[in-house]
Amino acid sequence: MGLILLSCNNDPIVDPSEFVENYRDLTEVEYSPTAFVVDNLPEFLPLISPADNPLTVQGINLGRHLFYDPILSADSTMSCSSCHSPELAFTDGLAKSIGIDGLPTQRSSMSLLNIGYNYRGLFWDGRVTTLEEQALLPIEDEIEFHNTWTKAVSDLQVHSVYPTLFREAFGIDHTGEITKELAAKAIAQFERIIISGGNSKFNKVIFDNTLAFTDQERHGFDLFVDDGDEDALDAECSHCHSGQLFMGDEFANNGLDSTADFSNLIDLGRGGVTGYNVDMGKFKAPTLRNITLTGPYMHDGRFASLDEVIDHYNSGGAPSPNKDQNIRPLGLSEYDKESLIVFLQTLTDTTYKYPELVSNPH
User: Fold this and answer.
1) What is the helix (H) or strand (E) element at residue 12, kind and residue range?
2) Which of 4, 98, 305, 358 is deepest in the core (most CB within 10 A)?
3) Given pLDDT bands bounded at 50, 70 and 90, which one contains residue 1?
4) What is the SS3 assignment for 257?
5) What is the pLDDT of residue 93?
6) Is there a domain that residue 212 lies in?
7) How far apart are alpha carbons 147 and 145 in whole angstroms?
8) Quick one: which of 63, 43, 97 has its CA closest to 289?
9) Domain that holds residue 252
10) Which of 173, 192, 211 corresponds to the end of one domain?
11) Is 331 part of any domain?
12) b vs e for 187-205, b when ≥16 Cβ sit within 10 Å of the residue's Cβ?
């Protein structure tokens, strides 16, 4: 029986080893976290981390190990990287991802590239607002990891390595202090440093001035960007894919499915979160950086190629009460469509800002 003492106010001080399952003391492991400062690309806004989860070398290291480790899935066959591979700009190349039981998810896996700069809702429907919230969900999703956090945390507590990594990252005193919240914080730290390497042709042309667009790339760029000239042909792309991230902050119905009253929509999108008709069939516009690596396209992967995507937008899409006003017949020629794809190819960059830190440590 452990010794129980009384504090100054006569409350008992209980030895945690007496009541914490999987207790192991960690205080002999040094806790001296090192702040990690992102060397921001000049074209990006500063990366902002929550005050209660600042980036540290140790936190990123723990998150990196958890991200690539199948230990978080119920049968230890899937990791976060199973659906978010660095070779595919942190997607998986599937129309819909496959969970541990062989069942397809409802939607395609979005790219995690530059995800730390996304402050206006995550997932296709924006159902969470922080990476910390996002990291909690796949583990208990019945299709994805089909696990419980109780089991996942227990597995981490008895692991030969993870308790030390949690101590180094968060200063816990014993294994019983490992929680799902700390695991999610570490994964979120890792995801925040999945940043473009800055080596796309677009960057070299626009920011470095070391390369120049070809005539066809320039034509595609001009079609992509709305320059305000009402007489110029406009592909209407930059309304939803804006800024240097080429990503949308808002949600839009881009005319994928014909509907008169939303009753036949298979996926309600943002409307399934808010319950508002105005949000039915709306989805987040993902980043177009590395878009050539992240097909198939749309939330359900219905388009196998960028040619199909552009054909959809050129057609004006299907009728819907809340279809975005910019989704209209565009009148693009075959050369115009080819030029758009050639321009989008200039956004490809297979390098990462911190290549060693985003690679698989196992």
Assistant:
1) strand 12-13
2) 358
3) very low
4) coil
5) 97
6) yes
7) 5
8) 43
9) 201-345
10) 192
11) yes
12) bbbbbbbbbbebebbbbbb
Short-list 129, 93, 138, CA closest to 111: 93
Q: What share of the chain is helix, strand, coil (3-state, %, to 5)?
A: 35, 10, 60
Amino acid at the residue 135: A
Are the C-beta atoms of 247 and 285 separated by less than 8 Å? yes
Given pLDDT bands bounded at 50, 70 and 90, which one contains residue 233?
A: confident
Cα distance between residue 72 and residue 140, in whole Å:
10
| 27/140 same-domain check | yes
We report the CATH number of the domain holding residue 229 as 1.10.760.10
**pLDDT at residue 5 greater than cutoff 80:** no
Cα–Cα distance list, 104 to 95, 101, 168, 324, 325 (Å): 9, 9, 37, 29, 32
146's torsion region: left (phi>0), alpha (psi -120 to 50) or beta?
Answer: left
3-class DSSP state for residue 51? coil
Residues in the chain: 362
Lowest-pLDDT range of 2-6, 18-22, 252-256: 2-6
Is residue 214 located within the same domain as residue 313? Answer: yes
What is the C-alpha to C-alpha distance for residues 195 and 46, in angstroms, rounded to an integer?
A: 12
- The verdict on 214 and 151 lying in the same domain is no
Q: How far is CA 258 from the centre of its chain?
A: 29
Q: Which residues pair with 6 in a beta bridge?
A: 12
Here the tokens at position 156 are 């981490």
Residue 121 CA to residue 81 CA, distance in Å, equals 21
Distance CA 157, CA 171 (A): 15
Mean pLDDT, all residues of the chain: 93
How far apart are the C-alpha atoms of 249 and 252, rounded to whole Å?
10
Nearest to residue 250, comparing CAs of 261, 235, 240? 240
Asked if 53 and 132 touch (Cβ cutoff 8 Å), the reply is: yes
Q: Say which DSSP state 116 is in.
A: G
User: pTM of the prediction?
Assistant: 0.93
How confident is the model at residue 10, as a pLDDT? Answer: 59
Whether 303 is in a domain gets the answer yes
In a domain, 48, yes or no: yes
Q: What are the tokens at 174?
A: 């014993």
Q: What is the DSSP letter of 296?
A: S
